[in-house]
Every structure is written in structure tokens, then in C-alpha cells.
Design brief:
The complex is a heterotrimer of chains A (465), B (433) and C (439). Chain B has 433 residues and is of the alpha/beta class. Chain B is built from 11 helices and 15 strands. Chain C contains 14 helices and 16 strands. The chains are: A alpha/beta (465), B alpha/beta (433), C alpha/beta (439). Chains in contact: A-B, A-C.
Chain lengths: 465, 433, 439
């Protein structure tokens, strides 16, 4: 009881100490791409205290709000990246095939300049995930890009919990090939999941039994031997929460058979609202995905970097969209996140997805997949004012992101950019220190922390430069 | 001089006799010294008397007992309370080095994972480590030592600083548990997030075991690691939490809120970024004096480079003023070497005085009474005061002057004469061995 | 009109054949008249409603207001944009099939000094990547070895042919020299600063020594060949032989270099070797020393443009601005993707360059005539002119725009079947039951 009171006090204190930043702004005369309600010409959007309060023509400026003349420019919802590893001090805990207990929320690095660079591409939210070394990885963190604030402010507190699963080559290479521990094959991947789900159900039952037995013993004035305690287990607690539908699963997967496998397993255990990440072969089972209500979050055009993506196609988005699968386009890269508008346009190029559907793939669709679609993903009255303003239609290669707002606070303004945007400056270091540029390969992000499985030379030359 | 020799004979006989017959051991005294108290006051022409390892009296008009062996300061010696090191690693074994590539199927053991909160350091210390002598020459008389290693490497114990550590050097065993966010690179957890999850699980398990044992159940198991955490979970003892950067300190806060434990922050090089929080939470800091090298301040070749350099200098200034910021915010600040060699201490102290906004009195207080308070020892040490442990350092000038030399260090009453090192080029003596 | 069931089945069967097998559609080859399009010649402006006449592998006419004679099959491209086939001046296309499968990776030989390695040898003409990338606008690439200090020779290939021999525009287009880099190479590089500095110095020293040895070998062999009488023939050294064309100016050296400090050191090297032709490749920090590069008259292959800044305090747009900054001070700029499987993103690299400061025509030149000039093949490639090779891109819009579709490619006058494994997978799975029946 005492610890509970202390916890409540801590939460209350924390929320007053780090109040969520909220801004007000009057964006005037833009072409507003609402996503949910058409594209409106010569339209104003009013933002007050972090919320969109009015959309209309020739509106009057609320007190205290800045005015931005957006004539000739395009306003769209802030872009949401459903697969990211920026702003993290660590990505993979690769020492066990199941590490559900670790949380990305514990290792947010709010001072990562990649956040700012993402804002420079109109991205307001990123889903910071565990890597793909483990069959069941750690819990993710949905972050608002409030660059300049502390980690607690970046974390979207009401966003649903998420967790990372991974199938195929990565976990079988790390654990099976690397450590002689199951899984070594796709067969093993399924069994690791089932085994752990069954263990979680047993744990849940035994914990409940223990709680009941303890209550009874207390009521009987502690007569007789105390019931043998069933220890609380951080890992199993999370697995129970997954089975109870409290956590959204995001599963790194490529081959169509492993996608089918997970749908089968999740059906057996009653898990819904999950997203296949990367899912390069999802198009081969698009009807099944639609039938199961499963989501996909994919690259626009990456392929051939591993065998399991050799038989994939840049037409993936078009086929999934055709079958009504809620699909998003993600980056999984600190480089790609900067031009997700350009990546979305590739869905139009490859297979003729409509421009609106292409834009949905970087706005409302990832919002649905992260369970935050009531708050973000479209420009609607009442939603969070996560917005990005562009010099031209965002799907054009010539479009430049001008301003990005998060909760109505201007977090990026191209005309007022002082170049050196570092939040943390070291007393050591040299002016000419370069950080090797991130070329945006898949291996850059998802397998961080798994150094032992890549020799220095392999990493160098596999990157084509 | 005459009565030194005379009374030395008496002292030896009396000492021998004391053991045989239980008589009082003769006293020792310094006369005509300038006494620097921990609160910053200075007492010129003071007399300091100690006996049986404790101060008997100290002040300007203190009488010298008849049986005291006296050393006359000649108005040229300065006496300070003995310095305390809140977290030292001298003499502790190197932590196991992770292999180049993690080995296949390495069994997960508490040792490999770094879960060793029960480990005592006394048995591990290499008694002849040279840093003990070096520390004593600088003026350290008491130090808290804990093992090195990831995660929870072991317990903190307090030792008298002698040239060579003996079993009698152990003064207070197990005053706390050293905690870090450093992962093992050998087995799980190998990441910070894994470490944080491990802390959670350990606390669940410790509280569960505590409840199980308390219930009187016949089959309650024993677990040394978990039992070592009971006092931490009860808040009767604290984690001596080693953390430097901003994020690590915030992670320490978040864990302590969630799991319910008290902390003493050790090292805290970026603690100034969290000064207000530390003050609000009443978390004391055993701060490191290791400062980054001063960056080059010559003009940049371009505007861009000049701007970059100016930010670097700002960052350096903030680091150097770390302690100042903490004091200004009302944080209780003590000292921890946490690996800073005794021979490197002086040059950092010089920077703290010249650029860090600290006075000698503040530095002395940090290294004496404050550290004692943080370690829970201020009732018996940290200042030259009757009843306290007779720990002192005697120097030729105020401690922070450039050409000062340590003449004696007194550890729990035992006096050691510090041999002078040949003067460095330029004629500046060093406060080193 | 209803289609009879047997015909439907035959059509489905045929479609299935093409979907699963290799490309079996035959490229057209003969005389074509491409009429009605906007022609971006690159070197002679833009021609509206133009006419291009192709006779087998040559362009024989470029103009407008001309009615093609009967032997030309007329292709109506009204409303389309026609560009020269795009040239990617830095890839590993055909050398790497799947980067995570080592046995399919052939761009990196063991050892630090390998001038005799030829990328040309290891090009896989049947790589699945080739059709995937050529249907999207790129007709010609430099494919280059990596690894070590001297990796070997890069090759310039058209993306059409059964053998490397037939694909090659220039079998050996440049010698690749990786300037010993001073910085950290990536997040996986855990070397200390001291280790990096030491290894860089060692690398530079080795490079200089080997270079001087090679120069000496060339002079010695030349002396022997000029007047062999009275001299003993020196032993032949395969590696040294491969270096000889550098010193005679026949083969340019492509220095892969990124950091400002390294670029300046490489420029000193260029100055010290006036008889050698040099090209710089990658050049991420080129914008910092653009004027010096221009003064040295070294052409530059920049990319990938879509990268993150090299320094954590850099302005966020530096990589996108890089090609434009260099072009503005007179450097001849070509672009590279550095890819093995997504070379098709080359026009977007140019699009970003054009958006962030590079003149649009300059951006187009950087993927057409500039790489042609840099590799000495401007007589054949890089622009739409009579007499040049018929490498053409027919697009339904601006070739830089993401949403544009490439409708037809011509490579060496072949009307390329606009299909690839990726496009076949689309046709197979957009309605898989129609193709393969119910399961």
C-alpha cells in the first residue's frame, strides 16, 4: 500500500514537473490535405493549445497565436513512421530469443539529432522499436518529436503499448546459427512463440491461483502454512498482456509462409490488431491478410539484401492496398525517415495507388497500426495539431518541408534553422569529426547490437561503397 | 625536540605496559599549527591532541597532556581533517573482460551477468596496490571501496587508508550496495534496457522472497543476492549509484521511483543538468573531480568552426562548473575518486578553483565532512573535533596552493611521515607521493 | 465481348509462363520513329513534338516537323517526355546479388592491393537486378569493385546483353582507389580514435609506396619495350601491369574519398601526378572544398545524395545541396546511387539535387552527358543526338518525379521488354486466382 501511494505521488509530481508542451497557431490560406475529408483549397487551420480547433476560410486569429501565411503551400498531417530506431540508446538485447521484459521507453535518447532531421522531412511521430534479433523482442515506444524536451515528454503516454516480434532469417541466424539455441528454422520460430504463450497462460493461471490462496489464508487469520508464492516474472507478465490484448504486436517478417504462420498462431491464441513489419512477401497472401484484419508496414522498394526478400516487389503496396489491407510505408532508417513523402509517392509509381491512398500510408494508416488514430493521422477538428507545411504537393520530388508542428508547437522551421542543432555538446571532440553517413540500408538499424554476427569487412562491402 | 625523545621512551614503555596492564595509551599532539575546520573556519596557533585513535581536544587554548608526544608545527604547518573518498576502486580486481565475440551457449550465471549485490570487497582487495600509499600521501584517511564490474558488482565498505591494507584496515563493512547501469557484455543483460529490466525482476524477486521468509514458511528458500537487496528494498540502506550522463541519471530517478529505493549518486559528471531534481529528491552526490581537458580556444578558420568551438567551450565550462551548480541548487556534494588517480587530483582541483567557481573551503568541506555525512559517518569523522576519529592531513601550506607538500597523514591516530618527492622542474612541489 | 473459356485458360497459362520463367518477350530491334514527344536532348535543348529516328543501335535523326519514311515503325509517344538513357556513375549492379549471402557477393576481393581485379569479369548478365532497374530509366552503369586500397577496375556497361563482353561500353573504365579514410566508417566501427589515425597513416604510407613502385615498373617496362635490344626482359608482374595504363593516361583513377581532410590530401596527390587522369567518387564533404576541387579540374561523382549529413552539427540539408554547390563553382558533377539493387532511384537523387540548389538542366546532365564525358564515351552516350547510341527513356512525365511512370526503354536501339521479376510478381499476384487458379 505504501509503495502504491508513493507511486501515485510520483506520477502526479512528474506530470506537473514536465507539462506537455502545447502551442497555438493560425495557418492561413493553405491547400489543406485533410486525408479524411478531402483536399481543401485556400483554407485556414486554427490550432489552440495543441489541438486543431477550426478548419475553414478567412478565420480570425485566436489570442496568443502566431500567424503563418501558407498561401501557395500545402498542409498535411505530420508524417508518422511506424518502424524506427532513432532516439534510442540501444536497439537489440540479442542474448535470448524472448526478451519481452525490456522496454524501449527505458532507453530513449531525447538528444538524438536524427529527431530534428526527421522533423525536417515533416515527420512528427516515430515508433521506436526493439530490433529484429529475437523472436519476441522488447516493448516499443511511440514518440512525438518534441525535440528539445526530455524523454518523458517525447513518450506518448496514452499511446497503446506495442511489442516487437521477428520471424525468419534474423532470429534464426542470431540464436540458431549463432548460439545453437532454438529457433534455427522457421519451424522453430513458431514453436518458440507457442511455447512461450503456453508458459504465459500457465503463469497467469498459477498467479491467479496464488492470489486467491493468499486471500483465503489472510481471511483465515493466517492459519496453517502460507501458500507457496508464485514469483512475479517481468517477461511472462508482458506475454500475458499480449494474450490479454493489451499490447499491439508488430512483427518483423518477410516470407509469405511465415506471415501465414503468425496469422494461424495468433488466431489460435486470440490475438488481433497486429501489424506485419517489412512483410516483403505480404502481397502473396494479401487476401488472407485482409480476411484476418492484419496490417502491414513496408518499405517502398528495398529488396535483395537478404534471401528472404529476393522474391519481393516494389508493387507490394499497390497489391495490399487493392485488397483493402491497412498498409503503411516506413523507414527503419534514420536516413529514409527524412523523405517518407517521396517513399509514399513510389506507391503511385509502382501499381498506380491513388495519391490519397499513398498519403494515407504515411499518416492515418500508421496511426491505426499504432492505435493512435483517434488523436493523429488526419487534419480534423479535435485532433492533435501534428502538422507539416510543404512548398509544393508533398508527393512531388520538388516539395520542400517548410515547417513542422508537434502539438501545435513549431519544432522545425526551415527559414529559422541555425544549422548546428545539437542538444548535447561534448567538451571533447574535433571540429572535423565526421559520422559516417547513413545510407539507409536495412541492416543499419534492425540488427544493431548484434555485432558478433557481422565481421567488420562484411559490413563495409555489403554496403556498396 | 628534547622532550620528543624523552617522551618517546615513555611512550613505547607506556604502550607496552598498556597492553599488559590495560592502562591508557599515551597521547600525541600537534602544537602551533593552523587548524582548518571542515566548516571553513581557520584556527591559527592551534593545538590538536589525540589518543587511542580518537581526537581528545582541538583548539587554540587546548592544553597538552603530560604524556603526549608532541610535534611542534612552528606556525608553519596546516592541519586539515583527513580526506574521505566516497567511492574508490583501488586494489579491486579487474572485472572479467568480455570475449571478442560472445561465446556460444555461455551459461547465464549471476557472476557473468554482474548480479553480485552480496559480494564483499574486503576479501578481494589487493593489499599492496600502489594507489593506497599515493592516496595517503595526498591526505586521504578513509575510503569507501566497492568491487568493479557491471550492473551490481558488490557492496561498499569503508576502510582506513594505510600504505598497505590489512584486515584491521576495514572500518565499516557493507554500508551500501554499488549499482550501475553498465551491462555485462558476456551474457544477458548486454544492453541498458536489459539492465533496467533486470533491476525490476530483482526487486520483484527480492520482495517476494522477503515476504515468503517473513511468513514463517518452512520451505522458504535462501538466496544471497536477493537477501542482500532486502535493506535496499526497505530503504534502510541505499544504492551507491554510479552514473555520469544526463540520461543515466534520469534513468536512475525513474527506477528509484518505480521500484522504491534510495540512492546516492556517484561520479555525476553531468549532474548539473539535473541539479534541481537532485535537490528536490534530496539525493546526495559523491562527485567526480575528473574534468575534461580544456578545448583549444583559438579562433576558428571559418565562422562555422568558431561557432562550433564556442559551443565546445560552453560545454567545457558547464562541466567544470558542475559542482558549483550542484552546490547552488542545494545538493549535498561529497567526493568520489571513482578511478581518478591521486596524482591527477591536484591539477583538477586547480581548475575547480580557478575556473570552476569553488573556494578552498568548499573543496575541503566536500572532501571531508560532506562525504562523511553522505556515508553516514559524520558522527565520528569528517572534522577535527573531540570524539571523532583522529584522521588528519598536515601540509606545509594551505592545501590548494601550488607548491604545497604533505608532511604527515594521520589515519585513526597512526601518524605517517610523507617523504618529499624531488621537486618537479620549476621548483613546484606536488601534493603527491 | 465474352472470351471463350479455353482461350482464357490459354491466356492464363501463357501469363503464368511469363510470370514464373525468365523474360521471354523478345526486344524489338530495327527501325523506329518515336514521334510526338517532348525530347530532352540535354546538349541541344528541348524539342517539342519531336521526332527521333532509330536505325538498329543508332539514333539517325533528331528533330521535329518531319514525317518518317515507310521503313520506320512509328511509335506514337504524344504527350510523353523522352530523355537519354540515364547513367549511374557508381554501383555494384551485377556484382552483388544478395548482400547477406556471401557467395553472391563478388565486388570485394581479399587483399589491399588488387589493381588487376576487373569488375567486368564478375558481372552477372542474368542478375535479377538488371531488368528490375533498367525498366525504370537507367540504361547504363558503372559497376565497381570495393575493398582494400586499390580494388581493381570498374566497368561501364549497358544493361542489355548476354555476356559482360557484349554489355560493356568500356570493359575497364577506371581504376578504383579507396583513399585511406580517417573517420569512423559506420555505427559498427568500434575502433578507437588512435587506432583509426594509426591505420589511416599506415594505409597512406602503403598506398604511396605501392604507387611509386608501380610508376617505376611502368617506366622500366616502357624503357624495355621502346628499345629491347641489349636488355634482359624484366619479370612480368600482373598487378603492376594492371597499373600501367594509369601512368600513360589511358585509364583514369577513380579515388573514393569523402572527408574534407582526405579530399584535400587527394587533391595534393592529384597535383603531384599531373600525367594521371583522376576522378573523385562519393565526395560527401565536397561542398566544403568545392572551389579547390574546381580549381584542380577534377570531375566528381557524388552520392548517394539521399544521405544523412557527415557531421552531427551540419545543416540538415547539406547532402542534398552537395551536388549543386559543386556544380555552381564549375565542377563537372555526375551522380551515383552506390546500389546493387535499387539503381532505379538514380533519377530521384537527381531530383533532390535539383530541388536543393542544382540547376535542373545541370541535374539532368549529371545523370547523362557528364558521366559520359567523365568516362570518355560522350561520342556514343549521354545525349539525344544523331549518330549516338540509341539509349532512350520514354516517360509519361518529368523523369525526376517519383510519380512518373517509365513507359519504354531503348538500350542500344533494342525496344526493351518492360518487364522484370518485380513486375511479373505484380501481374501474378494482383489477381492470383485468375493467373493460377484457386488453391
Amino acid at each position: 500500500m505504501k509503495t502504491l501511494l508513493i507511486r501515485i505521488a510520483a506520477i502526479l509530481l512528474a506530470s506537473t514537473v514536465s507539462a506537455q508542451p502545447k502551442g497555438s497557431v493560425h495557418i492561413r490560406n493553405a491547400t489543406v490535405i485533410t486525408i479524411s475529408g478531402g483536399t481543401l483549397e485556400n483554407t485556414d487551420v486554427l490550432v489552440e493549445n495543441g489541438r486543431i480547433t477550426r478548419i475553414g476560410s478567412n478565420l480570425s486569429t485566436p489570442r496568443g497565436a502566431d500567424v503563418v501565411d501558407a498561401t501557395g503551400r500545402y498542409l498535411m498531417p505530420g508524417i508518422i513512421d511506424a518502424h524506427s530506431h532513432i532516439a534510442l540508446s540501444g536497439v537489440n538485447e540479442p542474448t535470448h530469443p524472448v526478451t519481452a521484459e525490456v522496454r524501449m521507453a527505458d532507453v530513449i535518447n531525447a538528444y538524438d539529432v536524427s529527431i530534428y532531421r526527421a522533423l525536417g522531412g515533416g515527420v512528427t511521430i516515430s515508433h521506436a522499436m526493439h530490433g529484429s534479433a529475437n523472436v519476441i523482442g522488447g516493448q516499443g515506444a511511440t514518440l512525438k518529436h518534441h525535440y528539445g524536451e526530455e524523454a518523458e515528454t517525447l513518450l506518448m503516454k496514452d499511446a497503446p503499448r506495442t511489442i516487437k516480434f521477428a520471424l525468419g532469417e534474423n532470429p534464426t541466424r542470431v540464436h540458431g546459427q549463432g548460439n545453437n539455441v532454438q529457433p534455427r528454422t522457421r519451424m522453430g520460430v513458431e514453436q518458440v512463440i507457442r511455447e512461450h504463450f503456453d508458459a504465459a497462460l500457465d503463469y497467469k493461471r498459477r498467479r491467479a491461483d496464488y492470489a486467491t490462496a493468499l486471500q483465503t489464508w489472510e481471511r483465515n487469520r493466517r492459519r496453517g502454512a502460507a501458500p507457496v508464492p508464485v514469483a512475479r516474472n517481468a517477461r511472462l507478465d508482458v506475454l500475458v498482456d499480449i494474450l490479454d490484448g493489451k499490447i499491439l504486436v508488430h512483427c518483423h517478417s518477410y516470407r509469405s509462409d511465415e506471415i501465414s504462420m503468425l496469422m494461424r498462431v495468433f488466431k489460435d491464441y486470440g490475438i488481433r490488431n497486429y501489424t506485419f513489419q517489412h512483410a516483403n512477401e505480404a502481397f502473396k497472401v494479401a487476401p488472407e491478410l485482409a480476411a484476418h484484419g492484419a496490417y502491414t508496414s513496408i518499405f517502398s522498394d528495398w529488396w535483395a539484401y537478404k534471401f528472404e526478400v529476393y522474391y519481393s516487389t516494389s508493387y507490394n503496396a499497390a497489391i495490399l492496398n487493392h485488397y483493402g489491407v491497412v498498409n503503411s510505408i516506413n523507414s527503419d532508417s534514420g536516413e529514409l525517415i527524412r523523405h517518407l513523402n517521396h517513399e509514399a509517392a513510389k506507391a503511385v509509381r509502382y501499381g498506380g495507388v491513388s495519391q490519397l491512398d499513398a498519403l494515407k500510408m504515411i499518416t492515418i494508416n500508421p496511426a491505426i497500426q499504432l492505435g493512435i488514430d483517434k488523436r493523429v493521422g488526419t487534419i480534423e477538428v479535435g485532433k492533435d495539431a501534428d502538422l507539416s507545411l510543404w512548398s509544393a504537393h508533398p508527393l512531388s520530388i520538388y516539395a520542400i518541408a517548410d515547417i513542422t508542428w508537434v502539438d501545435g508547437v513549431k519544432r522545425f522551421d526551415r527559414m529559422n534553422d541555425p544549422s548546428d542543432m545539437r542538444l548535447r555538446v561534448s567538451a571533447d571532440g574535433k571540429f572535423s569529426d565526421t559520422v559516417a553517413s547513413v545510407s539507409g540500408r536495412h541492416e543499419d538499424s534492425c540488427m544493431q547490437g548484434v555485432l558478433d554476427f557481422f565481421t567488420f569487412e562484411q559490413m563495409e562491402h555489403a554496403h556498396d561503397h | 625536540m628534547k622532550h620528543i625523545i624523552g617522551s618517546a621512551v615513555v611512550w613505547v614503555l607506556a604502550g607496552a605496559a598498556a597492553h599488559l596492564h590495560g592502562q591508557a595509551v599515551p597521547a600525541q599532539a600537534f602544537t602551533r599549527v593552523t587548524l582548518h575546520r571542515a566548516d571553513g573556519t581557520t584556527v591559527p596557533q592551534a593545538t590538536i591532541v589525540w589518543r587511542n585513535g580518537l581526537f581528545e581536544a582541538a583548539g587554540p587554548n587546548t592544553a597538552v597532556p603530560f604524556d603526549a608526544r608532541v610535534i611542534d608545527g612552528g606556525d608553519s604547518l596546516h592541519v586539515y581533517p583527513g580526506l574521505l573518498d566516497g567511492m574508490a576502486e583501488w586494489g579491486t580486481p579487474e572485472p572479467p573482460r568480455p570475449p571478442e565475440r560472445p561465446e556460444r551457449t555461455v551459461e547465464v550465471t549471476n557472476e557473468r551477468a554482474g548480479i553480485l549485490p552480496e559480494r564483499d570487497v574486503a576479501a578481494l582487495i589487493r593489499k599492496e596496490a600502489p594507489e593506497f600509499g599515493a592516496a595517503r600521501s595526498v591526505g586521504f584517511t578513509l575510503m569507501a571501496i566497492a568491487p568493479r564490474g557491471p550492473l551490481l558488482p558488490g557492496r561498499v565498505s569503508v576502510f582506513h587508508v594505510r600504505g598497505e591494507m590489512t584486515p584491521s584496515s576495514l572500518y565499516r563493512p557493507n554500508i551500501g550496495i554499488k549499482a550501475t547501469l553498465t551491462p555485462s557484455r558476456i551474457v544477458y543483460p548486454t544492453t541498458i534496457m536489459g539492465v533496467m529490466a533486470t533491476y525490476r525482476q530483482l526487486f520483484y524477486d527480492a520482495r517476494a522472497l522477503q515476504a515468503h521468509q517473513a511468513s514463517g514458511s518452512a520451505n522458504a528458500p535462501r538466496d544471497a543476492s536477493l537477501e542482500a537487496l532486502f535493506p535496499i528494498a526497505d530503504r534502510t540502506s541505499a544504492f551507491h549509484f554510479v552514473a555520469d550522463d544526463r540520461e543515466s541519471i534520469r534513468r536512475m530517478f525513474s527506477l528509484s521511483d518505480e521500484l522504491g529505493f534510495n540512492t546516492i549518486l556517484v561520479s555525476g559528471k553531468e549532474a548539473h543538468t539535473q541539479a534541481a531534481e537532485l535537490a528536490r529528491r534530496k539525493v546526495p552526490v559523491l562527485v567526480s573531480f575528473a574534468l575534461p581537458a580544456k578545448p583549444d580556444t583559438s579562433a576558428g578558420r571559418t565562422d562555422e568552426e568558431s561557432a562550433w568551438k564556442s559551443r565546445q567551450v560552453q560545454a567545457w565550462t558547464a562541466s567544470v562548473r558542475n559542482i558549483r551548480s550542484l552546490l547552488d541548487a542545494g545538493v549535498l556534494v561529497g567526493y568520489a575518486s571513482n578511478g581518478l588517480k591521486p596524482s591527477d587530483l591536484k591539477k583538477n582541483v586547480d581548475v575547480l578553483l580557478s575556473q570552476g567557481g569553488l573556494t578552498e573551503a568548499e573543496i575541503v568541506r566536500i572532501m571531508t565532512l560532506n562525504t562523511a555525512t553522505i556515508l553516514g559517518l559524520n558522527a565520528i569523522t569528517g572534522d577535527v573535533r573531540a570524539g571523532n576519529l583522529a584522521d588528519m592531513v598536515v601540509t606545509t601550506a594551505p592545501m590548494t596552493r601550488t607548491s604545497v607538500r604533505t608532511v604527515y597523514t594521520v589515519t585513526a591516530g597512526d601518524l605517517t611521515e610523507i617523504k618529499a618527492t624531488p621537486a618537479a622542474p620549476g621548483g613546484r612541489g606536488r601534493m603527491t607521493e | 465481348m465474352t472470351i471463350k473459356k479455353p482461350l482464357l485458360l490459354i491466356a492464363a497459362y501463357l501469363l503464368a509462363c511469363t510470370a514464373t520463367a525468365q523474360i521471354t518477350e523478345r526486344p524489338g530491334y530495327g527501325r523506329y520513329a518515336l514521334v510526338g514527344a517532348t525530347i530532352h536532348t540535354v546538349t541541344h535543348g528541348v524539342i517539342e513534338n519531336g521526332v527521333i529516328l532509330i536505325d538498329h543501335d543508332r539514333i539517325v535523326f533528331v528533330g521535329s516537323n518531319v514525317k518518317p519514311t515507310a521503313e520506320y515503325e512509328v511509335l506514337d509517344y504524344s504527350g510523353k517526355q523522352i530523355y537519354p538513357g540515364l547513367i549511374d556513375a557508381g554501383t555494384s549492379l551485377g556484382l552483388i546479388e544478395i548482400s547477406a549471402v556471401p557467395v553472391t557477393v563478388d565486388n570485394a576481393e581479399v587483399g589491399s592491393f588488387n589493381p588487376n581485379m576487373r569488375a567486368f569479369t564478375a558481372i552477372n548478365p542474368n542478375s535479377a537486378s538488371i531488368p528490375v532497374n533498367r525498366v525504370d530509366g537507367v540504361s547504363t552503369v558503372i559497376s565497381q569493385p570495393a575493398s582494400g586500397v586499390v580494388s581493381g577496375t570498374a566497368t561501364l556497361i549497358d544493361l542489355f546483353g548476354y555476356t559482360p563482353d557484349s554489355m560493356a561500353v568500356k570493359a575497364d573504365a577506371a581504376m578504383v582507389l579507396n583513399w585511406p579514410a580517417g573517420g569512423r566508417r559506420g555505427w559498427w566501427d568500434s575502433r578507437t580514435d588512435e587506432q583509426i589515425a594509426e591505420q589511416t597513416q599506415t594505409g597512406l604510407k602503403e598506398m604511396r609506396e605501392t604507387w611509386n613502385k608501380a610508376r617505376f615498373y611502368h617506366e622500366m617496362m616502357t624503357a624495355y619495350e621502346t628499345t629491347p635490344t641489349g636488355k634482359t626482359k624484366p619479370d612480368r608482374d600482373v598487378r603492376m601491369e594492371a597499373m600501367r595504363p594509369i601512368f600513360s593516361g589511358a585509364l583514369p583513377v577513380m579515388i573514393v574519398v569523402n572527408r574534407e581532410r582526405d579530399i584535400l590530401a587527394a587533391l595534393d596527390w592529384v597535383k603531384a601526378n599531373p600525367e594521371v587522369r583522376f576522378i573523385f567518387s562519393e565526395v560527401a564533404e565536397g561542398w566544403r572544398v568545392a572551389e579547390k576541387i574546381a580549381a584542380a579540374k577534377v570531375p566528381v561523382i557524388v552520392g548517394p545524395v539521399l544521405s544523412t549529413p557527415t557531421r552531427d552539427y551540419d545543416h540538415y540539408l547539406r547532402p542534398y545541396q552537395n551536388p549543386g554547390v559543386l556544380a555552381k563553382v564549375g565542377v563537372r558533377v555526375a551522380l551515383r546511387t552506390g546500389q546493387s539493387d535499387n539503381v532505379r532511384n538514380l533519377p530521384f537523387q537527381a531530383g533532390y539535387a535539383a530541388t536543393y540548389g542544382m540547376d535542373k538542366l545541370e541535374a539532368l546532365k549529371s545523370v547523362t552527358i557528364n558521366p559520359a564525358v567523365i568516362f570518355g564515351v560522350e561520342d556514343r552516350l549521354g545525349s539525344i543526338e544523331a549518330g549516338k547510341q540509341a539509349n532512350l527513356v520514354v516517360a509519361n512525365g518529368d523523369v525526376f518525379e517519383t510519380m512518373t511512370t517509365i513507359e519504354q526503354m531503348f538500350i542500344r536501339g533494342r525496344k526493351i521488354p518492360m518487364t522484370s521479376r518485380q513486375e511479373q510478381l505484380y501481374r501474378q499476384f494482383i489477381d492470383r486466382e485468375a493467373v493460377n487458379g484457386r488453391d
